[in-house]
Amino acid sequence: MGITGAIPSVIGELSHLRSLDVSNNNVSGPVPTSVGNLTRLESLFMNNNNIYGTTASIFSNLLPLRRLRNLDVSYNRIIGAIPLAIGSLGQLQSLKVSGNYISGTVPPSIGNLTLLEHFEMHDDFISGEIPLAICNLTSLKDLDMSVNNLTGQIPAELSNLRNLEAIDLGSNQLHGGIPPSLSELTSMFYLVLVQNNLSGNIPPAIFLNCTVLGLVDLGSNHLFGEIPRAISSTEGCLFVVLSLYSNNLRGTLPRWLSNCTRLMILDVENNLLDDELPTSIISGNPYLLYLHLSNNRFRSHDDNNLEPFFAALSNCTSLRDAGGMWEHVSSGLVPTSTEPFLPSWLISELASLGLLRIVLSNNALKGEIPPSIGDSTNLGELDLSGNMLSGSIPSSIESLAELRVLSLQRNRLSGQIPVAILGRCTKLIRLDLSSNRFNGTLY
Q: How many alpha carbons fall within 13 Å on the CB side of residue 399?
C-alpha cells in the first residue's frame, strides 16, 4: 500500500529539511502551501502518486524554494500550463513533470534554467512549437518531450546543447527535416524521433560524427533516400537499436551493420529497400533480438538458395522475432550511460532463448524453403507469404511443435501438403496455404 493520504501542512515546520521524497506511494490531495517554508530544500520527489491540483497553485507554492535542484512531480493528476514563473527556479538541475495533464505551450522562461541537465515532459498534452529558449540550456544532457502534441519543426539550434546525450521527441506532430546540425552533438547516444511527420533524408553526418550513437528510432515518418552508408567507425560500432520502419527508404542495408556486434534490434520493415537477405548481419550479431524486414524487396543471394539465411537464423540463439512490429523502446526511457550498452544480466537471460517468429512476408524471396527451418524448434510463427517461393513444403516443419501460425499463401509452392503437419503441429491456430500450386488429397 505505501503511504496514503495528503501531505500534512505541518511539513512546513521542518525548516532545515534538504530532501523530501514521497515518491511511489498513494499520496493524494494538493501540495500544501506550507511546502514553501522549506527554503533549504534541494530535492523534492513526489512522482507516482495521486497528487492533484493546478500547475499554477503547485508552482506558486514552490517558488520560494530558491535552492531547489531536483523536482519530480511526474505521474500525478496535475492540470494546467507550465507558468512563466518556472524561470525563477534558477538552481534546478532536474525537472520532471511527465505523465500529468499538463497542457499549453512551454513558456520561454524555461530558458532561464541554465543549470538544467535533465528535462522530462513526456506523456502530457503540451502543444505548440519547441521553444527556442530550450536551446539556451547549455548544461542539458537529456531532453524528453515525447508523446505530446508538439508541432512545427525541430530547431536546428538544438546543436547549441553540446552536452546533450539523449533526445526523445517521438509521438508528436513535428514536420520538416531532421536538422543536419544535430551531427554537432558528438555526445549523443540516444535519438528518438519516431511517429512524427518528418520528411527528407536522414542526414549522413549524424551517423558519421556522433561517435557514441547507440539507439536511433526514426520509424513511422516520411523519410526517403538511403540509410547512411558510413558511420564514425565500423570497428567500434555501438548501435544497439536501429529502427527505421514505415518510411520510404530505398537502396540497400549498409554493410557496416555487419560489424555492429552489439545490435539487438534492427527494424526496417515497410520501406522500399531492395537488397539481399542480410545473412552477414545475423551472423555478426550474436545478441540480435528483433529483425524486421517485411514489406520490402529482400531476396536470397542467388535467387534459389535460402539455406544460408535460415541456417544463420537457427544458430542465432538470442533472436526472438524475425519480422513483425515491435513496441518501440523509447516510451520515456532515457538511458543513463553509454556503457555498457548490453548489461551482463541481459546477456545471460538471452542465452537460453530461441527464435519465436519469422515474418518475411511481401518481399521478393525465391527458391525453396530449406529443411533447416525445422531446427528452430521454439518457432511459434512462420510467415513467408507474398513471395515467389517454389518447391514443396519441407517435412521438417512437422518438428515445430510450438508452431501456432503458418502463413505460406501467395507463393509458387507445389507438391503435396505434408499431412504430418496437421497431426504433429497441434498448437496451430492459423494455417494459410492459399494461392499456391499444391496438389493431392488432404486426409
A: 11
Pairing of strands 43-45, 175-176: unpaired
Q: How far is CA 264 from CA 2, 55, 335, 424, in A?
A: 37, 40, 15, 33
The helices-and-strands tally (H runs, E runs) of the chain is: 6, 34
Cis peptide before 340 (omega within 30 of 0): yes
Q: What is the CA radius of gyration of the chain?
A: 26
Q: Tell me the CA distances in angstroms from 301 to 170, 277, 380, 442, one per residue in order.
A: 36, 7, 26, 34
pLDDT at position 173: 98
Tens digits of per-residue pLDDT, 138-176? 999 999 999 999 999 999 999 999 999 999 999 999 999
pLDDT of amino acid 343 = 35
Contact (CB, 8 A) for 218 and 178: yes
Spatial separation of the C-alpha atoms in residues 126 and 149, rounded to whole Å: 6
Structure pTM?
0.83
Residue 218 grid coordinates: 526514426
- 10 Å CB burial of residue 155 (0-12, 13-18, 19+) is middle
Quick one: how far is CA 90 from the chain centroid?
A: 32
Identify the pLDDT of residue 1: 53
The whole-angstrom separation of Cα 128 and Cα 148 is 10
DSSP summary character for residue 305: B
What is the torsional sign of CA 100, 106, 111, 112?
negative
HEC per residue, 185-245? CCCCCEEECCCCEEEECCCHHHHHHCCCCCEEECCCCEEEEECCCCCCCCCCCCCCEEECC
CA distance 248 to 238: 25
CA 129/CA 152 separation, integer angstroms: 5
Which domains, from first to last, does the chain contain?
A: 365-443 (3.80.10.10)
Burial class from Cβ neighbours inside 10 Å (0-12, 13-18, 19+) for residue 129 reads middle
Our CA angle for 30, 36, 40, nearest 5°, is 130
φ and ψ at residue 362, rounded to 5 degrees: 55, 50
Query: Residue 341: pLDDT above 50?
Result: no
